[in-house]
Design brief:
alpha/beta, Rossmann fold, Helicase, Ruva Protein, domain 3, six-stranded mixed β-sheet, 10 helices
């Protein structure tokens, strides 16, 4: 189970998410007695590698008494069955990762997406008094179907998980290097990692440990020279694709979470988001511990 200290987000963001998801779970009986609904929807959006899935893992770990149903990739086609199971086994959480795969706005998918309508019906068909949480993640909130937001009870909280600011980058560096001795000043590393993601920093630490081991350090020590060499390699022009795969901004001033135009868009002007590549994994269901 992840600890809160292992989820590095801007100040107040994790607390806001916890209040919306865990707070409702903790006060479910009192909320129902007061005539309030329990069903809630959370959208986590932001560039790849910033910690959306990591945050979901933390939330589901906190909700130990809940049934957790994970849908991603091709398994999202089972959304109808997952919603029915979530109602039956409530309190429950239905997680849909990379939801933009099936919830592309109809302006960009003229032929329609059958799974989009299944998703909307599943979210609407779950009674408001049901203790069911829908958690959606996406790298491309700019192309999501607006119908996800135009009815209360579908998505009632959208949170951006951004690339880490300097304070978060320092926390991430210390988190991933916590079992290794650090000799030197992290200041240059902080400067050299502007615009990167948590995934990039995690890989940076691993490569620096490897550099230390190759240099003969036993146990490994993270030194300024190792950091400098590894960072120069990872930010070199030949590693642009690696940086992109790790979610780091590529190119001057590129800090956008948007990627290529969606199918059928063909540069028709700016995409105005209703809110700001998929990993194919099988459907996962976790019963309460």
């Amino acid at each position: 189970m992840l600890a809160a200290a292992e989820v590095v987000l801007p100040e107040g963001v994790l607390e806001h998410i916890e209040q919306h998801i865990i707070g409702v779970a903790e006060w479910s009986r009192e909320l129902l007695d007061a005539g309030q609904h329990l069903k809630r929807g959370l959208l986590l959006h932001g560039p790849p590698g910033t910690g959306k899935t990591h945050t979901v893992r933390y939330l589901t770990g906190r909700l130990a008494d809940c049934t957790v149903i994970l849908l991603t990739g091709l398994s999202i086609r089972f959304i109808d069955q997952a919603a029915a199971l979530a109602r039956r086994l409530q309190p429950s959480v239905v997680v849909l990762e990379d939801v933009d795969l099936v919830a592309l706005d109809r302006d960009y998918a003229p032929g329609g997406q059958p799974l989009l309508f299944s998703l909307l019906e599943a979210m609407d068909g779950t009674g408001t008094d049901a203790d069911v949480t829908f958690v959606l993640t996406t790298n491309r909130a700019d192309i999501l179907e607006v119908a996800l937001a135009d009815r209360p009870g579908r998505i009632d909280l959208a949170i951006e998980i951004p690339r880490p600011d300097p304070a978060c980058r320092e926390r991430l560096l210390r988190l991933y290097a916590r079992d290794v001795t650090v000799h030197g000043d992290l200041g240059p590393v902080m400067t050299g990692t502007e615009g990167v993601t948590a995934s990039f920093i995690k890989e940076l630490i691993r490569r620096t440990v490897l550099a230390s081991l190759r240099a003969g350090d036993r146990p490994p020590v993270l030194r300024d020279t190792y950091f400098a060499d590894v960072l120069a390699e990872m930010t070199g022009e030949h590693h642009a694709l690696t940086r992109s795969l790790l979610g780091a901004a590529v190119g001057d001033g590129d800090d956008s979470e948007a990627g290529a135009d969606p199918p059928g868009y063909a540069g028709r002007g700016p995409i105005v988001p209703p809110w700001p590549m998929a990993r194919a994994r099988s459907m996962g269901i976790r019963r309460p511990r």
